[in-house]
Amino acid sequence: MDRCISALRGAYLDFASGVAVTRRRSDTLIPSGESIYGLKTMDGIAPNLGVGAVRINSDIVTWPKVGSSYRRVKVPAAPGSRYTGLILVFSTETGEPLAIMPDGVIQRMRVGATSALGTDYLAKKEATMASIIGSGWQAGAQLMGLLAVRPEIQTVRVFSPNSAHGEAFCREWGSQLGQEFCAYSLITDAVQGADIVLCATSSIDPVFERKHFEKGMHVGSIKPPEISRSCLDLADKVCVHLGHGKPALVQADNLVVPDHSGDRGWKTSDAFDFSSCTTLADLISGATNGRTNADERTCFVNDLGLGLQFAVVAGVTLRLAESAGIGRVLPTELFTQVEHP
Amino acid sequence: MDRCISALRGAYLDFASGVAVTRRRSDTLIPSGESIYGLKTMDGIAPNLGVGAVRINSDIVTWPKVGSSYRRVKVPAAPGSRYTGLILVFSTETGEPLAIMPDGVIQRMRVGATSALGTDYLAKKEATMASIIGSGWQAGAQLMGLLAVRPEIQTVRVFSPNSAHGEAFCREWGSQLGQEFCAYSLITDAVQGADIVLCATSSIDPVFERKHFEKGMHVGSIKPPEISRSCLDLADKVCVHLGHGKPALVQADNLVVPDHSGDRGWKTSDAFDFSSCTTLADLISGATNGRTNADERTCFVNDLGLGLQFAVVAGVTLRLAESAGIGRVLPTELFTQVEHP
Questions:
Q1: Residue B45 · residue B21 · CB < 8 Å
Q2: Which of A85, A282, B47, B312 is disulfide-compatible with B341, CB 3.0–4.6 A?
Q3: Least confident residue range of A272-281, A317-326, B99-108
Q4: Residues B175, B181, B184, B187: what is their CA dihedral angle, to the nearest 10 degrees?
Q5: SS3 readout for B218-285
Q6: Is B294 within the bounds of a domain?
Q7: Within this chain, do residues A58 and A34 fall inside the same structural domain, yes or no?
Q8: What are the pLDDT digits (tens) for B77-118?
């Protein structure tokens, strides 16, 4: 996580100066039986690492209702109940493919690292208590990122509507780390008095409400709808990852997206305009200030992934894997050609 | 080529009816030494074949001057002097990767088949003489496509500024086919009296001029600048592949594209507005007419590739390869994952 954060920090500086580039995510969608088939791609180039990357997700997506809220759920429909997500890494010097990697672990780490960078610029330096809303796969990465930028945190409260999940999360992480962990099944209890609240849910409804938002608090989210519109309005600073949080959509005419899902599975009825918000690149490059006093309410919305993030994290991962002798060497000639493309 | 044309014909019908979808090509570009590094991607889904595809080119591009005109040239900089172009094919039912293929042969076949479809709707049915401008890799596919839709052609004239190249092309194809082939080193001689002229060059300057454009002629091009603006103005019908012929560009701020190259290596000073032209999907779906009389001058401009073309042609190729037992089976589990992406 430290390496991931440091690599991304460099990438945002390169992005802010116009050297690194990234193509906005696109979602190409058709109906597939009762579900939706989506081909999601994003590209980026990290010149300082000498790599370009394409991240591809080939997803079967559904929107089941879980408890009182809808969730956007990917179905592991590939053989062996597996998901399909790939990162292809290319050399900017020769064009050749350098690696093909599954995206799952990297996806989680880059989300955690991105949120951590937001936290680093926006949360109180002297934060000691943090809350994690959610106890799943993404929640672990939020925790790792948080502790990388705020190692002084002493108490971590974890909310899950399912007590067993929250308690399992606390046991797992509590056994590895020096912080005190405690599980809660009411959000209000979990966030009260926290310096930092990090949402890491698959909910497409708001989970963090205005009544929870105390003076001096920093709230992070891994997708826009987690923080309610009224919280965003109350915040002294709302910063955003990219600032135009919608993918480019290409949809078949016969596609029916569930009514409650908005155009990418989010409610849009109470949409907030993120387009004029400070971005993470602004914060990191110093173009704008982060937190300036202990009383500010701050939000960081990790709105949309960038191909550049995958180029950077996959590029660093590739170097580490090569040093460690991890992975299989695929013959380059199978993935190159003599024919002019 | 017959299979390729037939598969694409079906795809354009599905595209016209909004069932098949395609994401417009994007070019993400940075400087790389004296050259440009480009990561070019396009996605498409062909529901009737049950496949989605992403085509990726990872290119080192230069713009050398050859003779009196500039060319856009990709450098085979990968080990063994190879190019990097891939098509990844996915199942729309399970999401899983079905194949990874080099794109070179398919790229050429789909360009040839697309131009052939344009020719089929726009050229005279009773055409007997055709000219090919160019004698390279793409010229061969133009010829194959042409003869698939106009098998009655008796004479093929081939222009190349390099006589040896033109003659070699004529020898190669003449030995396989029943048509009479003849090489020319002046365009005027090569095209005079032809029913169909197909440009297949890497030139970024016009090669087919107004003075060449006779009554009743059909002229095809594999990139917009090959046919001069004054020819397009003279034509009775100008049809186009897609109709918005520019890729989505993402460029580093420090990128310097050569002055003469326009924004994708083409001169734009004499730009023609293709956006209101009839598209190939219009012609195939019957939304608009093709040629209606023997005197019309017609143009088909194969302006920009579609991810859908690659989904369709790669999908059909995959089935043929499976039937024939061709290719290597890569273990699916290497390209899928248990982690939620």
A1: yes
A2: A85
A3: A272-281
A4: -130
A5: EEEECCHHHECHHHHHHCCEEEECCCCCCCEEEECCCCCCCHHHCCCCCCCCCCCCCCCCEEHHHHHH
A6: yes
A7: yes
A8: 999 999 999 999 999 999 999 999 999 999 999 999 999 999
CATH number (domain holding residue A274): 3.40.50.720
Q: Give the one of B30, B60, B338 whose C-beta lies nearest to A45's C-beta.
A: B30
Asked if residue A338 is part of any domain, the answer here is: no
Cβ contact A58–B100 (<8 Å): no
Give residue B17's domain range.
2-103+307-326
The answer on pLDDT for B264 being more than 70 is no
Partners of residue B62 in chain A, C-beta under 8 Å: none
Task: Say how far apart CA A114 and CA A112 lie, in whole Å.
Answer: 6
Residue B20 contacts A, CB cutoff 8 Å: yes
* pLDDT of res. B332: 95
B76 & B135 share domain: no
Tell me how far apart the alpha carbons of residues B185 and B196 are, in angstroms, rounded to a whole number.
18
Distance to chain A for B256, nearest Cα, Å: 12
List Cβ neighbours of A18 (8 Å cut-off, separation of 6 or more): B252, B253, B254
Give me the residue from A19, A96, A103 closest to B79, CB to CB: A96
Cross-chain Cβ contact B84/A95 below 8 Å: yes
Domain match, A202 and A296 both: yes
Q: Which pLDDT score, from 0 to 100, does residue B223 have? A: 85
Q: Is A111 in the same domain as A214?
A: yes
| Mean pLDDT value across residues A258-270 | 50
Which amino acid belongs to residue B312? V
Query: ipTM above 0.90?
Result: yes
Between A4 and A263, the higher pLDDT residue: A4
Question: A337, B92: Cβ pair inside 8 Å?
Answer: no
- Quote the number of domains for chain B: 2
Q: What would the pLDDT profile of A28-78 be if each residue is shown by its tens digit?
A: 999 998 899 999 999 999 999 999 999 999 999 987 777 776 677 899 999
Stretch 298-337 of chain A: residues touching chain B, C-beta under 8 Å: 307, 328, 332-337
Closest CA of chain A from B93, distance in Å:
6
